[in-house]
Amino acid sequence: MAKTAWKRPGSPIGRKGPRKANPAYKRRSRQPWTPADVSKLKQLAKGNTPTGVMSLKLQRPVAAIRSKAQREGISLRPVNRSPYNRRAKTAKRR
Question: Where is this region: Disordered (predicted)?
């Protein structure tokens, strides 16, 4: 009889415990956001911090940070980025 896929050594399927031995952040799934967490998120977003760094500092997944920022109306887009359509606004050269 053939061995099933989840019985293979090294396969994470069917294995108990966390997938990573040393995750970058603690599992805080479904943990409520405190007002201090939200203010820290606003401060980091204002400082043009990448979402990967935010996830390490706030100890939350990147998806949780993006969804909370969207619900709170916080823009994660960098403010110092030049506009993409800059050439269209300048005068045409002959």
Answer: 1-48
Span between the terminal Cα atoms of the chain, in Å = 77
> Distance (Å, rounded) from C-alpha 74 to C-alpha 42?
7
Q: What is the pLDDT of residues 21-75, one digit of tens each?
A: 566 666 676 789 999 999 999 999 998 899 989 998 998 889 999 999 999 999 9
Which amino acid, 93?
R
Neighbours of 88 (CB within 10 A): 8
Phi-psi region of 86 (alpha: psi -120 to 50; beta: other; left: phi over 0): alpha
Position 67, amino acid: S
